Amino acid sequence: NAGVTQTPKFQVLKTGQSMTLQCAQDMNHEYMSWYRQDPGMGLRLIHYSVGAGITDQGEVPNGYNVSRSTTEDFPLRLLSAAPSQTSVYFCASSYDHGSGANVLTFGAGSRLTVL
Amino acid sequence: GEDVEQSLFLSVREGDSSVINCTYTDSSSTYLYWYKQEPGAGLQLLTYIFSNMDMKQDQRLTVLLNKKDKHLSLRIADTQTGDSAIYFCAEEPDSSASKIIFGSGTRLSIRP
Questions:
Q1: Which of A41, B15, B71, B95 could form a disulfide with B66 if both were Cys (CB 3.0 to 4.6 A apart)?
Q2: pLDDT band at residue A86 using 50, 70 and 90 as cut-offs
Q3: How confident is chain B (112 residues) per 10-residue block, as mean pLDDT?
Q4: Phi and psi at residue B28, in whole multiples of 5°?
């Protein structure tokens, strides 16, 4: 099993450009989420999904869109990149939710720089 | 609101015990988690504790939970150089909502 795969690992954008960070998991996990990691601020939840066709906002959703058309994929779209979106982005998924511990499996991260 | 707080840095001598502390705000949290992040990698689950427990031990790791004070701690016995990492505390405020909120992370460094 590959687990959670994120692409690309590194990306440099100019202000105003758009791009999509890809996330795929092969564990048949229902729950998927996107976090951003910034120094001294830990991980902040951007968006999450409890199943195909269902998405919801996290703590910092502004400037980001998501969709969940399949169980496996959960792409994160930046519509018009801003320097404040320079960060490391992590995708995570889990099987259990609603009952039992929600143990997240993380991808390796995508480092985004917006100039 | 939901908030998880940790100190940013901890330095301990190799062989000593490390204690990483965390406070959280949501008393309805059913599970509380500790994750470890090594340099250049994603986070990996270390352990978790159900809210009706006071303590959980797993080899060198001991988790203590004080629900009254909303305080969680992670003790690592006999700290080794391989324990150098960032440790994140996380809460799940409402298990039905499936949101997990992380703290800022504590960077643990080991002195020889």
A1: B71
A2: very high
A3: 84 97 86 92 92 92 94 96 95 71 94 90
A4: -90, 0
CA–CA gap between residue A75 and residue A34 (Å, rounded) = 9
Would you call A103 and B102 a contact, using CB atoms and an 8 Å cutoff? no
Chain B residue numbers with beta carbons less than 8 Å from the beta carbon of A48 are: 98-99
How far is CA B35 from its chain centroid?
Answer: 6
* A3: its two tokens: 């687990």
Q: Which of B23, B100, B106 to mutate to test the interface with A (most CBs of A within 10 A)?
A: B100
| Tokens standing for residue A67 | 């969709």
Q: Which residue has the tokens 């999509």?
A: A20
Q: Which residue matches tokens 């998880």?
A: B4
Cβ-based neighbour number of residue B89 at 10 Å: 27
Q: Amino acid identity of B52?
A: N
